[in-house]
Write a structure and sequence with these properties.
By secondary structure, the chain is an alpha/beta fold. Among the domains are: 96 residues, Response regulator (Rossmann fold, 3-Layer(aba) Sandwich), CATH 3.40.50.2300; 142 residues, Response regulator (Rossmann fold, 3-Layer(aba) Sandwich), CATH 3.40.50. The chain is built from 13 helices and 12 strands. The strands form 2 sheets. It has a 6-stranded parallel β-sheet, with helices on both faces. The chain has a 6-stranded mixed β-sheet with strand order 7-6-8-9-10-12, sandwiched between helices. Helix 2 packs across helix 5, helix 7 runs parallel beside helix 8 and helix 9 crosses helix 10. The radius of gyration is 22 Å and the shape is elongated. 44% of the residues are buried.
């Protein structure tokens, strides 16, 4: 779709929003405030990217100019948005930037702030800034539809990374950890530690396809091995909810052998709850991030945090960027790319404890 048509789409959307707002003054003010917040965050992100680019050896400006003169390169503008701030997404972004710095381009990064409506505003602003492609990690897989529809109407390709949207037909490509394998790896470790089986609990996160795949990988692996799921509750994927949920689970179940956590963040809370309770319950998680590695390194083989299925967010970001350039250059690309996981535990922690992510 041409830039002219993109601008028409944006213009129609803005007119519709203005007419709707006339019927409700308070709602219009709230919407305007959120739009201004998104605009401010996006502007700040662009300023930060330009400053970073200018500081790098062989500045982005030099690369762009060189490409224009030789007619060999075309630089692109990308939007990058993730569901929440965190070192995992910092590593994804670093992987993207390694490719963009090599090939030339600009990336505008704006966090979704765990708010689907806010992230929708981020996407609208990306469209207004005429980005060529969007790296999209949704706040809520089920609520991603409106944002993806706007991007489709604007003719902007989408590389969905890490958390899959509910309808993958609405994105151009999908890049993520092999989340099923993350659950499988945890299940294998659980079987090794508890060959006789036992009762376990699961800390879930609803509306999260990655969490669902991890749990399915775990359940398929431990099936028929003597394990019983005594509790499966939504812990929100965060430390504070992981703590309170695990406290409730431990009070209701005194004979657990293990708790599976869908990410290291909620596992932090589970770890604290188990440690405070004095129970001998092992924590098995996914991510292989700095939190799990620090606990495994500190406590050793007899510790509470037994293992984490390691992701490589840097690789996820790098693969996403490579595919984005292929899409924009009209080259062949994979519709779905899955990055494998592996177990980090007391036996190999020394190899990985020196860095945040793999």
């Amino acid at each position: 779709m041409t830039k002219y048509l993109r601008n028409m789409v944006i213009g129609v959307s803005l007119v519709t929003m203005a007419l709707t707002g006339c019927g409700n003054g308070a709602k219009a003010e709230a919407t305007t405030a959120k739009q201004e917040e998104v605009k401010a965050d996006t502007t700040a992100a662009r300023t930060s990217e330009k400053e970073t680019s200018a500081d790098q050896s062989g500045s982005q400006t030099e690369r762009t100019a060189e490409g224009t003169e030789e007619g060999e390169k075309k630089t692109y503008k990308f939007g990058f948005t993730e569901w929440a701030a965190g070192s995992f997404f910092d590593a994804c972004y670093d992987g993207v930037m390694e490719v963009v710095n090599e090939k030339g381009g600009e990336v505008i990064r704006v966090e979704g702030k765990t708010d689907s409506n806010y992230q929708l505003g981020v996407i609208e602003d990306f469209i207004a800034q005429d980005v060529d492609c969007v790296f999209y990690n949704p706040v809520d897989a089920e609520a991603a539809g409106p944002a993806l529809k706007l991007l489709q109407e604007a003719g902007i390709p989408v590389v969905n990374f890490d958390l899959a949207v509910a309808d993958l037909d609405m994105v151009t490509a999908f890049v993520a950890t092999d989340h099923y394998s993350a659950g499988k790896v945890a299940g294998e470790s659980m079987i090794k530690d508890h060959p006789e089986g036992g009762k376990i609990a699961i800390l879930d996160r609803t509306n999260d396809n990655a969490a669902a795949q991890r749990i399915q990988g775990l359940l398929d692996t431990i099936e028929g091995k003597g394990f019983e799921v005594a509790a499966r509750l939504d812990a929100g994927g965060k430390p504070e909810t992981g703590l309170s949920t695990t406290e409730d689970i431990l009070q209701a179940n005194s004979d657990l052998v293990a708790i599976y956590c869908i990410n290291d963040e909620c596992a932090q809370g589970a770890y604290s709850a188990v440690k405070a309770s004095g129970e001998k319950v092992g924590i098995y998680s996914a991510n292989g991030g700095p939190e799990s590695k620090a606990a495994i390194k500190k406590d050793g083989a007899d510790g509470i945090w037994k293992m984490s299925a390691a992701q490589s967010p840097f690789t996820v970001g790098k693969e996403s960027a490579e595919i984005a350039y292929k899409i924009l250059e009209g080259e062949n690309y994979e519709k779905e790319t899955l990055v494998p996981t592996f177990a980090i535990d007391a036996t190999n922690i020394d190899q990985y404890a020196g860095s945040d992510w793999q």
